[in-house]
Every structure is written in C-alpha cells, then in structure tokens.
Amino acid sequence: MSLEPTSERMIEEYRTASPQSYLIYLFHIVTYDYVRDMIAGKTVLDFGCGSGYGTARIAEHCARVVGIDISADAVAYAKDKYRRGNLDYIAVPPVEEKALPFPDASFDVVLSFQVIEHVRDVNAYLSEIRRVLKPGGTFVVATPDRSSRLFPGQKPWNMWHLYEYSADALREVVARHFGDVTIKMMGGRSDVIALEARRTLSLRWILLPLTLPFIPEPLRVAGLNFVRQLGRHLARPLARKLTQEKPAGSEPVNFGFGPEQLSISDREDPSVNLIAIARRS
Length: 281
Hints:
Helix content: 25-40%
Number of domains: 1
CATH topology: Rossmann fold
Structural class: alpha/beta
Order of helices and strands: HHEHEHEEHEHEHHHEE
Shape: globular
Strand content: 15-25%
Number of helices: 9
Radius of gyration: 19 Å
Strand order of the largest sheet: 3-2-1-4-5-8-6-7
C-alpha cells in the first residue's frame, strides 16, 4: 500500500527527497529516541501517529503501544507496513467530536508529537489524554517552537497550524491539566539547524501579508491554501523528473548529517522544537 506525503505527514520512503525533508524526519526520530527510557516496558499511546514509523520505532521497547490518528488512510498504511505483536494502529475521530476509545487509566505513557498545534479545542485534547493516562503516568508533547519560526504576534504560516507555542505558553497550557511540567528544547549543530532556519525565515517573510495578527482566520487559511496549491502545481514537473531519475529512498543518501547532530536539552539556541514532559498527579 502506498501513501502520498504531505506538508504535514512524513513518509519514510520520502525522507531523503531533500536535505530539508531529511532534517524534518530526523526531528521526529530524535524525539522518539529521546523518550525511549520513559516508555521502556510500558503501555504506550502514540496520539497522532501519522504514517506510523515513529510508533513502530519504539514498539520493541514497549510492553504494548497503540498509535492513533484521525487519518484513516495513514492508519491503514501503518497497519500494512509496520507489524509487530505488541503494536496496533486505530483510526479515531477528532477528540473534539468524540472521546478516545479507551477506558480511564489505560496507559502508562501518552506521546503526542507535532499534534497540539493542530488542535482547535486544546482543553478537550488534554483532558482526554489525562483521562486515559494512569495516575503517576507520563505525558510527552512535542511541537514547533514559535520563537524560531514566527515574528512576534505573527500567525502560523503553516495553514494547518491553528496556534504555535512559545516555551512559556506550552508550559502554561499543559499545566492546566497536569502537574510537574518540564520544558525541553531541540537544537543541534549550527550548520544543520541553519537549514531549518533558512527555510522558516523565508516562509515567514514571504507569507507575512497573510499571517499578520489582524488578518481574519478564514482569509489566512484561504490565502495560504492558494499559495500551497500554486507551489504544488509549479513543483509537480520537477518532482516527476526527480522521481524518474532516482526514486525517493531507492538508495542511501548522505547529506552530511544525522541524528547525532541534533540535541535535546534544557536550553538550545536556536530551538526548533519544544518538548513538554508532564505527569498525572
């Protein structure tokens, strides 16, 4: 079964399509590897598993892991591609519409990477996570750090992101439902992080007219969607040419960096991602 990548869904086969794509893939991989000790021998929920590669990556360390996503196509792909006795994937409706299909206190750990920025009702999202988490259980959420992506007050240039968080804002919103919130940051070797810095700097400038704070939300989304569709149309011939010359993932590609060039700590400058670690009291 095949699954097309989107700007919001990474597929392992396409991870080497460009240095930027590979770096974004590494952001995910390094986050999953970071929680390895937290999930060892535990029952884990991966809330927002996408195409499932990260969930599968940690499965060998968990007692049991369930990946959930609102995309039925992504879940079907994950079920077909990644199989293990202690691993399952389930398609679920948005949490604002329906509660998660698990009893209270079902999981030792809940992970949710690159999801909270998409959620309209963040309180419903966090309440459901807290409900299915066992007392004393751990919740880990990862999200882009707006400090390195947006100008002050600027709305997200990613049309799918409803809100992007600073470290203080992420701590505040998670603390409404959990105690003992710790914020970590992701950074890395300067030349590697510069790839992401150049990408996001160009996007924040180019799309600034659509993302000023006073722009109505429907206009922001419509405008960004138009730009996205135009970009996809212009890029399609080049993508076809590259696919014909060298299919993505057909052979190893060395961009000169790997996961060892990324780091997660209390302070990274610049910080590309935030990771909040909280416990249910």
